[in-house]
Amino acid sequence: MKYNVTINETLARTLQVEADSQRDAESAISRLYYNNGIVLSADDYVSTEITVDKNQPYYKSPSLDFTLIQGDCNDTLSKFSFGFDMVFADPPYFLSSGGISCQSGKVVCVDKGDWDKTKTPQEMDAFNLRWLTSVRAHMKDNATIWISGTYHNIFSVQQQLIRLGFKILNVVTWAKTNPPPNISCRYFTYSTEFIIWARKLAKVPHYFNYDLMKKLNGDKQMTDVWHLPAIARWEKSCGKHPTQKPLGLLARIIEASTKPDAWILDPFSGSATTGTAANLLGRKYLGLEIDEKYLAMSRARREEIEHADIRADYVNRLAKSGSILPPDDLFVHEADLDYGKIPWLEE
């Protein structure tokens, strides 16, 4: 990896000046300084600050259709101007409070990390309002956004979407066909997540691939309840993120709301399931992620589908599950296609 590192050296000197006010004193010293009456040298050294720019690309695919940047989504998005066709966001659910669940037949703690610790309602609203504001500024006027969650966070997300002027199109219920059992036996088994689909502007039409969704649903209108499995074993070949979404879910979302060659943003990239699905379906992707562990996993997943046999296997698995059309009817991105320069980054 190559990093841009900035070295800021601080020089300082204190002088006395007679003046009628603080403002006059500052003006007198400014005139003296800019007229070369004051020359700072190494004798005036105070400190050195070294800053590594994390907002440069962590990884770019050979065809430039998949880019990862390490950094907070709010800080990173403020540094460039570009409009995306679609956003998928899997923000913190804020459900890590010491609870337990069942995984592979074992009792495990559900805590995901410090980033997922429970917040007060006010803190949650502020967090969601901030990242949604940052993302909205980088959506095209006809763009849509998909946001996943559970009851822990989804109502806060919904309120901030309305506050910012989004139009909510659907709230999809993802009914998992293979949920983990409820080991306490004191509640119904948790088997669903919610995915809000909204467009940026109330009066600007969005894209919806209605005919394809109907075809995937046996020539019947697809409802807002999706019966899909959770992440499969074959999707963990490069490791597993604690909140990793299945490729089939993202493939359906991407095909429903974008055309080939669309640019897709994921502000909480994780293991880049969004990017992997996007590239398999001929779309382009920018993922923002803080944790280098998951950036490395994302890169490995993208490099994995550079292999034609693996790419074909993934596409066939998605088609077999009914998430996408069979390969003969599907536009699939070719790995050696060159999209040219990434529009927000200097080559």
- State the major sheet: 9 strands, mixed
**Radius of gyration using CA atoms only:** 25 Å
Residue ranges: pLDDT <50 for 5 or more in a row? 331-339
Question: How many helical elements?
Answer: 9
Spatial shape: elongated
Helix percent band: 25-40%
* Total beta strand runs: 13
- Quaternary organization: single chain
In whole angstroms, the N-to-C terminal distance is: 15 Å
Mean pLDDT across the residues is 87
| Order of helix and strand elements from N to C terminus | EHEEEHEEEHEHEEHEHEHEHH
Coarse structural class: alpha/beta
Major β-sheet strand ordering: 3-4-13-12-5-8-10-9-11
Strand content: 15-25%
Describe the structure.
The protein has 347 residues and is of the alpha/beta class. Helix content is 28%, strand content 23%. The chain has 9 helices and 13 strands. The strands form 3 sheets. It has a 9-stranded mixed sheet, with helices on both faces. A two-stranded antiparallel sheet has the order 1-2. Helix 7 links the parallel strand 12 and strand 13. Helix 3 packs across helix 4 and helix 6 packs across helix 7. The longest helix has 16 residues. It is elongated and about 85 Å long. The two termini are 15 Å apart. About 3% of the residues have low confidence.
Task: State the gist of this model.
The chain is of the alpha/beta class. The protein has helices at residues 22-34, 73-77, 121-136, 154-164, 210-216, 247-257, 273-280, 292-304, 308-320; strands spanning 5-11, 45-52, 57-60, 66-70, 84-89, 100-103, 106-109, 139-149, 167-176, 192-199, 225-228, 263-266, 284-289.
